[in-house]
Amino acid sequence: MATAKQLSVLRRALPASRLLSTAAASAAFLSVEDAAEDVISMKGVRISGRPLYLDMQATTPVDPRVLDAMLPFYLSRFGNPHSRTHLYGWESDAAVEAARCQVAALVGANPKEIFFTSGATESNNISVKGVMHFYRDKKRHVVTTQTEHKCVLDSCRHLQQEGFEVTYLPVRPDGLVDLDRLATAIRPDTGLVSVMAVNNEIGVVQPLKDIGCICKEKGVPFHTDAAQALGKIPIDVEKMGIGLMSLSGHKIYGPKGVGALYLRRRPRIRVEPQMSGGGQERGIRSGTVPTPLVVGMGAACEIATKEMDYDGRRIAALQERLLNGIRSRLDGVVINGSVEHRYPGNLNLSFAYVEGESLLMGLKEVAVSSGSACTSASLEPSYVLRALGVDEDMAHTSIRFGIGRFTTEAEIDRAIELTVKQVEKLREMSPLYEMVKEGIDIKSIQWAQH
Amino acid sequence: MSFLLSRPFASEESLIMVLPRFSQLGARFLKESGIVSFIGMVRYMYLEVEMVSYTDMTLWITVTFVDKDGEERVIQVPIGISMLEAAHENDIELEEDPADEENDMLDLAFGLTETSRLGCQVIAKPELDGMRLALPAATRNFAVDGFVPKPH
Q: What ipTM is given for this predicted complex?
């Protein structure tokens, strides 16, 4: 096999302790001197060693305890959980049901209300499109916010194509939804209200309990995309009046490729399935349930139930450290989104008078994400930051730091170093910054046309 | 299948209208007999109802409701009208909300709608006079080749 051959060539060039994944090995080009100095060269960038990982909102590493729980289901207990006639099927099914209980326990739900899917994107699709299609004769309106995840917004746009009406509520400059506007936006023919629990870009936590109250009064199902919230903030579907909830495995130190959908039983909320087939998962989502992935998600949820408090406190301290470290050495640093109603592991900062793409290029030794166009597949700058009213130039310089269970203080300190150095370097070169230092108001400048 | 009344009903006994498992064979039977009336003497039968729809719009069902006083009411019902419309037209009180177990079984039915109920759970009451039912286009079984099992 070609990749195995390449891998063996690279293995000879590398010291034994450095193992690259097959994909990285086939993509990386290593010269002999590079190998000796431990330098990685990829996509035209040379860095010494693997970058620090501070992008926990994009994905998280799998907790070793979760991997331990998953492996037997790949190697020896590999049965199809829907096989009803033999031990392999029975034990697989038992494991899936146990995982279902673990996920349900984390959110305060009945295990019968949890359905496994391929991820939060699929759960969001089932929630938005499924609910509206089922009730299409009576309900023609959806209420959502402008800062939702793309899968929710795209599902809503798809519904608009089909003739439904969608209200995209604006948010306040701190990222929170205005409850009065939400209440007035709900109409008698509103079939769904969808507001995400914790925003993936800015980390803002929406007032779920209040929104749940409003929806309960008006008799409208409340859907929340809790992919970033699961295991990080306490969720109770009863107290928060949640009707549907999308959950993701790989944001809580579980495997990628699995997620779950919470669907309320009393009062029963029905959805039209998006995946047709043999009726698995009570017809809501047909397809063989991937036992190892589901067991992994269950294990991750169980660990989160136990460690949510501790992680929360530790991550809050790390966020303080990061923020103070940067703010003590730089001015013109703006936090995007509410400071009080925020999940501490997500810190989205904008650095004034710095060009975003150059900042990113200089931060190659820290794996972070940004709100600028170059990191988006569609070359569109972040619509979430635009909804907050952030100026385009500030949106371009936004960096999202994601802190997680395995982030160490040393990593935070190094990230502070690198960020501060890079920002200072860029500001040194920036004529805009010079002008600001001299006291000129940038907004009053008339730029000459070429 | 029809059960005849052998004695007047006591007031506490509930009457159950039971729709049996239909196949297309059953549909033909009904067409010929013209009557669908089921008055069971049993308390309740927990049947999973699998129903086939009749695309022939001239097919009518006669539904007989018997109230607690033993009064029979025979109604000719055309197929294809929903129960909800009937409720609105005739000012009928709908059955109380389905219980969890009924909802669980309904979840598995083909062609589920907002107003679906299990036939065995719709108990004959005086207020339900004039009820009309729409049947789904297929069952849980994948008889896409048109296979029809023998009735049993």
A: 0.70
